[in-house]
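Q: What would this chain look like folded?
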Amino acid sequence: MIHVVRILINWLVSALILWGMSFLTRLPFIDITFTGSWGQGTWLTIIVVAVVLGLINSLIGPILHSLIKKSKPLILLILSLIINAALIWVTSLVVPGFSIGIITAIIAAALLSVVGAGLATTNKK
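A: My prediction, written as structure tokens:
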């Protein structure tokens, strides 16, 4: 039961981070849009993106991360960021109504990693 709650919290946090980034589209390097049957930035699209991103991260992420596990810490950090950004970008290819630029995917991956690490440390207490 606790595991299910953690998954739901991670999905909610992912959805909120991506939704928050959609408000930063006036910055020149931020390129993220959510569209759906109810107009710009629909919650249904955002939630579907969070769920699909969670599924892609849980299915493909461990395989890719295992390939770089023996790297040095700085290389591991950079490669993990690139892998996570690529998984976010793949999510944009899978989910209709969601598009994201590669620079934005890298920023989103960094935010999700920082918040995910914070959630992981609070879950251990």
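The mean pLDDT is 82.
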